[in-house]
Amino acid sequence: MATQLVQDDLTLTRRSGQSVSFSCGGTDQCGGYAVVWYQKKDTETFRAILYITSNGRTQKPFNHPQQDDFSADRNQNNCSLTIENVKKDHSASYYCSCDKSGSHSEK
């Protein structure tokens, strides 16, 4: 059965310069696997931004052009993606997923 993570808001509205956080619940179901955050703009495919390991370590190996604008936090059941200084170019929907491929595992 597929892991079902819970996201209340995929898109939030903020003014330029403000901060915003997207939450992802149920990450305890990911076990020792990393949570990957993706950006989806209307006219583009999903782009991986970063991943955060089960012990809370954030890695940015995906060469996303805005990767330095994002940070992530993770505890036992939840994960969040934060943009500290929102820019117009951040307009998108944001999704989380367990990386069950194991390529970003702490196991």
From TrEMBL:
Annotated Ig-like domain residues: 17-107
Cellular localisation: Membrane
Domain of life: Eukaryota
Organism: Poecilia latipinna (sailfin molly)
Cited SUPFAM superfamilies: Immunoglobulin
Alphabetical list of InterPro entries matching this protein: Ig-like_dom (IPR007110), Ig-like_dom_sf (IPR036179), Ig-like_fold (IPR013783), Ig_sub (IPR003599), Ig_V-set (IPR013106), TRG_var/const_region (IPR051117)
Single GO cellular component term: membrane
Protein name: Ig-like domain-containing protein
Keywords (A to Z) from UniProt: Immunoglobulin domain, Membrane, Receptor, Transmembrane, Transmembrane helix
Major localisation: membrane
